[in-house]
Amino acid sequence: MTRYGVSLALLLLGSTLGAQVAEVEAPAGAPGAHSALFDAPESERVALRTEQLTAGLEAEAGPVVSRNFIDTKVFGKMERDGIPHAPLSSDREFLRRVRLDLTGRIPTPEEMRAFLDDSAPDKRAALIAELVGSDEFVDKWSYFLMDTFRANGKMSGYQLFHYMLDQSLAADRPYDDLVRDILAASAKSSNVIAAVNPIVREHVEGKPGQVENGDDLRKVHQLDTHDELTIQFGKVFLGVNLSCISCHDGAGHLEKVNVYLSEKSRADFFQQAAFLGRTRYIPHVERTEAIMGHFIVDDLGGGYDTKGSSMLRMARLGGPEGPKFLLTDELAAAEADPRDELARMLTADRQFARATVNLFWGKLMGFGFVEPYDGFDLARLDPNNLPEGWDVQPSHPELLEELAARFEQSGYSLHWLFRTICESSAYQLSARFPGEWSDAYTSYYARKYVRMLTAEELHDAIVTATGRPGSLKDGEREVPMAMQVSVPRPSGELKSFLQAFGQSNRGTVARPPVASPLQPIMMMQSSVVNDRVAAKDGSRVEKLLADFDKDAPVVDELFMASIGREPTAAEKDVALTALGQDRRQGAENLQWALLNLAEFLYNF
């Protein structure tokens, strides 16, 4: 039986989730309950895909218990509005989900069996506590933050910054402290001071050619770099996109998009950017050649010039120059360092906590209270004080506010935030919905929506399932997992594979993966998959064939290692027939077929 034959046989048998799922067309004009979350067709597509992929899932029997304040708010809103919800996920569904969400890794057969056999009533909370702060947790969320800061070759000290993130996440360093460190960082060399690298990353190249000396500022456009950093800090740390008002006033442009920003001017943006006005970005120079990416960053500049030229935006025509915080109108103290003042004001503002919890809530729950994460309209957060004609923006404004307040009270602990969200029954609901799903339920978090694995998660899942480590380079060291790399620089077949599944080069913000016609071809033909399912070089298939004389346990272990469950009777018959015809090739083909199922490619 060929590899394609095994896969087709499993599909025809109705394997729980079938083979890879094609994109489905939504009914035209489908109603959308949360336009800021998805547009109507996308919301309908995601719901239909979830229905297709989860029809055979088992769920936990019994009532859904409220475990913390998140559940009080989420289920309370559903009860008030008469919205049904999914049952709790089964232990099997929960284990795979939480391991992928917290660590980016699928469970091994040993981990799956140990969890299923554990009868302790608090085993889910205990597992969450074990995973949060683990080495794998640090790998995944350091990689995520490196994506968020778009760490690439424009950061000469990217490995140092990656190490800083690793250490901060492992030690649960207060997130506000980490952010203040980044906002106020200075350095004689960005290869020495880790925190300065997100600043270096945003530099805008200025005058080409040789430089006269180490104080020549023309190689970097200083003012445009101030602006780019102001926009980046606004998006990542405040959830507010200041791009529009960096070029023009909000009035006449943003009234139908963002009420808060429609009332802000370009002069307001200048005053926000003025917190960086004294900062200088000076490339390291060797024999009149600037080494772009390797920088000195200090605060010896003369301030923000509101009439200075621009390479990226409309001409600056002047305006007030003193640093003033956009959200509160607080002025920087005259005797203080402006960036120290920015760091203080930004992290003390409630919007910093709101934006942070919304960002990570969205990653764990499938979508944030506000989408996109940098799309906050600060005029529409309070349901009791809304602009005329507008609805409240967050799907759960009271929960967003309470989660932000408690995050502050926790000391800005990311470990606390991850544990709190994952321990909730809202997070632990099944992806299987027992009744007829309505698009109006989407924003209530009434079920778990499936999501496609990221390129890095998929690579690392293949590594775990097959027992064949990757061979990725991170500087001078080799690492087995894609999420252990500081900056993604794959080559050859691996580069093609990861890019097909949406790996970012960090030139732009990383986006969630979307299905494409190229992906099934990659899964079926790429050496990233085919070499690893081969019975050689210590692969799982090779070891199983050596460990077991009978075929049945080989089949059981390959199912458990690949998709985390035992085969059905019909699936087992197909698999045993394949192994009976050619034991080695049959086992290789079986795991190849399992890795090509949507059950492997999606997280529920």
Description:
Among the domains are: 173-348, no CATH class; 518-603, no CATH class. The protein contains 26 helices and 6 strands. It has helices at 3-12, 40-54, 69-81, 91-103, 109-117, 123-131, 135-148, 158-170, 175-184, 197-201, 222-238, 259-262, 266-273, 338-348, 350-365, 397-409, 414-423, 455-466, 492-500, 518-525, 527-533, 540-547, 551-563, 569-581, 583-595, 598-601, and strands spanning 280-286, 289-298, 451-452, 472-474, 477-479, 602-603. The strands form 3 sheets. It has a two-stranded antiparallel ribbon with strand order 1-2. It has a two-stranded antiparallel sheet with strand order 3-6. The chain has a two-stranded antiparallel sheet with strand order 4-5. Strand 4 and strand 5 (477-479) form a beta hairpin. Helix 15 (350-365) crosses helix 16. The longest helix has 17 residues, at 222-238. The two termini are 31 Å apart. The relative contact order is 0.15.
Low-confidence stretches: 14-19, 21-38
Please tell me how large the radius of gyration is: 26 Å
* Total helical segments: 26
Distance between the termini: 31 Å
Structural class, by secondary structure, is: mainly alpha
Number of E-state strands: 6
Mean pLDDT: 90
Helix fraction bin: 40-55%
Sketch the major β-sheet.
Answer: 2 strands, antiparallel
- Which strand order does the major sheet show? 1-2
Shape: globular
- β-strand amount: under 5%
